[in-house]
Amino acid sequence: MTDQTAQNQSAQNKTEQGKAGTRGSAFITGASKGIGYEVARSLTEAGYAVTITSRNEAEITEAARKIGGTARGVVCDVRDPAALEREVSAHTEAFGGLDVLFVNAGVGNFANVADMSIEQWQDVIDTNLSGAFYTIKAGIPALKKRGGYIFTLSSLAGKNPFAGGAAYNASKFGLNGLSEVLTLDLRQHDIKVTQIMPGSVATHFAGHTPSDADAWKIQPEDIAQLTVDLLNMPVRTLPSKVEVRPSKPPKK
């Protein structure tokens, strides 16, 4: 590479970085509230430009407004691979590339196998597992261009089955397997993959409303801090699976 070519490449990289933010850009699914929102807010504070997604237009628009900066809020259903390809493409166009993909969108339907409807099963698997696959598949081409990081938001339910958790357990067990394969598929492309597996988190998941009674739980901002910390790890080191638990749950 000639000096002039190197200078041109450096200038181009700086231009792309300038479009994206001081550290690059991140695409985060399921981010109108809870973990996804806090991750987006923390990454914005750390110097990333972000795109956040949700199925609810009003909620995602308000979330982007609250995050501020160059944050983009878009309506996107992760069960729709074409929509994900379209929105990831729009993200790379807006910010000059993609550096972080945070796969967070998820739902929970809980019932024993005999009582669970086909529709409930499909909703969980299509969102939590197939939706994760579609999100990652849409993001890989952009990530390969300059390396990056994929986070999959799994759960301790991805290794610990519980009664009534057929669909949710299956989706998270599957997501963990997908994440482990991704590490092997992508490590030579300078793409890191970490599966984050929290226990009880104080979010709106499955219709829950956070309250003071949730003070003992992991808070969404704790997962956001963990994400930023992982991004700051040396390039040579990959914490591929991180289990996170409340430090002092209530006595039973």
UniProtKB/TrEMBL annotation:
Keyword Oxidoreductase in annotation: yes
InterPro entries cross-referenced by the UniProt entry: KR_dom, NAD(P)-bd_dom_sf, SDR_fam
Signal peptide start-end: none
Keywords: Oxidoreductase
Domain Ketoreductase: 24-205
Domain of life: Bacteria
Biased composition (Polar residues): 1-15
Region (Disordered): 1-23
Matching Gene3D superfamilies: NAD(P)-binding Rossmann-like Domain
SUPFAM superfamilies linked to this entry: NAD(P)-binding Rossmann-fold domains
Stored Pfam families: adh_short
PANTHER family, alphabetized: 3-PHENYLPROPIONATE-DIHYDRODIOL_CINNAMIC ACID-DIHYDRODIOL DEHYDROGENASE, DEHYDROGENASE/REDUCTASE (SDR FAMILY) MEMBER 4
Similarity comment text for this entry: Belongs to the short-chain dehydrogenases/reductases (SDR) family.
Stated name of the protein: 3-oxoacyl-[acyl-carrier protein] reductase
Species of the source: Deinococcus marmoris
